[in-house]
């Protein structure tokens, strides 16, 4: 099966347990993001991606805010480096193009900058702290 076929577009209310499972493992447990910062009012109004393995187990997620910002990109540690992150980002960029957005924008953790640079994203401005983690703004012009 192709990796792109393992990624679904979901709404928060239909996939909340799986989305919470991945973000809890990656952001709250692994990266020590305070729970109170992890969950916000944007989850209910965002479009979410849910990546599952071939057996249907959740392995990754990301969200697209109503204003077009990409966020909360996460793949469970044991599933990284197998293309799930790239497949999710490709899908989000397709969705932005479908919406006729001129650019993709996100706040990247500085350690994830090389991942986004592979897609042509460029860093904008200075580093800043968010949830105790250094970030930079990144943007990509869409054709
Ligand atoms: C960032 C993340 C989503 C990438 O997911 P992934 O499934 O591992 O990504 P892929 O397998 O598609 O990797 C694509 C490429 O980017 C590289 N890459 C991925 N994460 C990277 C990182 N943090 N630093 C440097 N390179 C990275 C991979 O090595 C791979 O390179 P290759 O094409 O030369 O093999 C994942 O590492 C993750 O969940 N990290 C923890 C949470 C996080 O930091 N999220 C980002 C918030 S801005």
What does the model show?
- By secondary structure, the protein is of the alpha+beta class.
- It has a single domain (3-141), classed as Aminopeptidase, CATH 3.40.630.30.
- It has helices at 12-30, 35-38, 84-98, 113-117; strands at 7-10, 47-52, 58-64, 69-75, 103-109, 122-130, 133-141.
- Strands 1-2-3-4-5-7-6 form a seven-stranded mixed beta sheet, sandwiched between helices.
- The chain binds coenzyme A.
- Coenzyme A is lined by residues 26, 73-75, 80-86, 108-109, 111-112, 114-115, 118.
Low-confidence stretches: none
Query: Percent of residues in beta strands?
Result: 25-35%
The molecules bound to the chains, other than polymers, are: coenzyme A
Assigned CATH class: Alpha Beta
Work out the radius of gyration: 14 Å
Strand order of the largest sheet: 1-2-3-4-5-7-6
Biggest pleated-sheet summary: 7 strands, mixed
CATH superfamily: Gcn5-related N-acetyltransferase (GNAT)
Approximate shape: globular
State the CATH topology: Aminopeptidase
Question: What does the average pLDDT come to?
Answer: 97
Cα distance spanning the termini: 29 Å
**Count of individual beta strands:** 7
Q: What would CATH call the architecture?
A: 3-Layer(aba) Sandwich
Total helical elements: 4
Helical amount: 25-40%
Indicate how many domains the architecture comprises. Answer: 1
Order of helices and strands: EHHEEEHEHEE
Structural class per helix/strand content?
alpha+beta
């Amino acid at each position: 099966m192709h990796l792109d076929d393992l990624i679904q577009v979901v709404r928060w209310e239909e996939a909340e347990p799986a989305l919470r499972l991945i973000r809890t493992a990656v952001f709250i447990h692994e990266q020590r993001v305070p729970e109170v910062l992890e969950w916000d009012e944007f989850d209910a109004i965002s479009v979410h991606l849910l990546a599952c393995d071939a057996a249907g187990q959740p392995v990754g997620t990301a969200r697209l805010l109503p204003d077009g910002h990409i966020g909360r990109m996460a793949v469970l540690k044991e599933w990284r480096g197998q293309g799930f992150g790239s497949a999710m980002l490709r899908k989000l960029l397709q969705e932005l193009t479908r919406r006729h957005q001129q650019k993709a924008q996100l706040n990247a953790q500085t350690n994830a900058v090389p991942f986004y640079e592979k897609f042509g994203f460029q860093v904008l401005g200075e580093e800043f702290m968010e949830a105790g983690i250094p970030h930079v703004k990144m943007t990509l012009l869409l054709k």
